[in-house]
Specification:
The chain folds into 2 domains: 145 residues, Medium-chain alcohol dehydrogenases, catalytic domain (Quinone Oxidoreductase, Chain A, domain 1), CATH 3.90.180; 132 residues, NAD(P)-binding Rossmann-like Domain (Rossmann fold), CATH 3.40.50.720. The chain is built from 9 helices and 15 strands. The longest helix has 13 residues. 25% of the residues lie in helices and 28% in strands.
């Protein structure tokens, strides 16, 4: 089968090559992949010299089941599915356990579905950790990115007053259309306290966002797109003006290998197919033309999601 593999001599450190097809375990379905979406973390990982040539990366992919799991778990042959995994998504075939598969309407667009796993699940699970959001002010940094866009939509639907942070002023109108009540270029521009923060950026953004968290609130560190460290002084951690009992929590989607994501993936797929979630696809191309999309992502020129169609 063909796959997009690490090749340190190629543009973007990726090249289409022939690799052996996966052999599913008894609890895994074999999926014919129709589309994948790119995330900065995996694309950046391909550039690391320690990542061996020939490695098949890829977290997010969608397609159709061509062989059901031998143990009877998961979807049936012919079902359209969205898949999650730590690797091996950028290939024509992927072996996936039932816990990392969500079923989707048969007429759903595979490219749109492929945007859901990492970005959609991360947004959903972090917002759940915040508890009831009805009437709460919630800040989302990196709001024009994959996780950020889904978080804006889901938080607004949950009744939150969404404070979106995006350094690109061209994104403001689109973020308001998704449900943001306020859009600012940086957390330091926010003057009213927020109950929670979903931070995708790290560095100074994290420090400034934590400074406006109200008493009893929390900041959830989901990403570090700035690649900068955040150093908080004791005064910043303790807080002033009686804003105590605040916390910073980290989040990693695949931190617990026992987590079953199937129900959440299925729900997200249904919401997207019904038009109630906007996947925010800003670049879509056949996977043979992956180099430009990969470079745009590495250069931070891409807002939203990049999708590659497997052709």
């Amino acid at each position: 089968m063909r796959a997009l593999t690490v090749d340190h001599t190629a543009p973007g450190h990726l090249a289409l090559t022939e690799v052996p097809a996966p052999r599913p375990a008894t609890h895994e379905a074999l999926v014919q992949i129709e589309a994948v979406s790119l995330n900065f973390g995996e694309v950046h990982g391909a550039t690391h010299p320690e990542t061996p040539n020939g490695t098949v990366l890829g977290w997010d992919a969608a397609g159709v089941v061509v062989q059901a799991a031998a143990d009877g778990s998961g979807p049936a042959v012919g079902d359209k599915v969205v898949t999650l995994g730590a690797d091996a998504g950028w290939a024509e075939l992927r072996a996936v356990p039932a816990a990392l598969l969500g079923t989707a309407p048969k007429d759903a667009d595979a490219g749109a579905l492929s945007t859901l796993p990492v970005a959609g699940l991360s947004a959903l699970h972090v917002l759940r950790r915040m508890g009831s959001l009805l009437g709460r002010r919630v800040m989302i940094t990196g709001a024009s990115g994959g996780v950020g866009r889904f978080a804006v939509q889901l938080a607004a639907r949950a009744g939150a007053e969404v404070v979106a942070i995006s350094r690109n002023p061209a994104q403001a109108e689109g973020l308001r259309a998704l449900g943001a009540h306020e859009v600012h270029p940086e957390p330091a521009a926010v003057t009213e306290p927020v109950a929670y923060v979903l931070d995708n950026v790290g560095g100074q953004h994290l420090i400034d966002a934590f400074a406006v968290v109200s008493a009893g609130g929390a900041l959830f560190s989901v990403g570090r797109s700035s690649e900068a460290d955040a150093v908080l002084t004791p005064d910043a951690l303790i807080g002033t003006d009686s804003r105590h009992d605040r916390s910073i929590r980290t989040f990693f989607l695949l931190g617990d290998p026992a987590t079953d994501f199937s129900a959440d993936l299925t729900w997200l797929a249904g919401e997207l197919a019904a038009g109630r979630l906007d996947p925010g696809i800003s670049r879509r191309t056949p996977w043979a033309d992956h180099a430009e999309a990969v470079q745009a992502l590495l250069d931070r020129r891409l807002h939203g999601k990049a999708v590659l169609d497997i052709q």
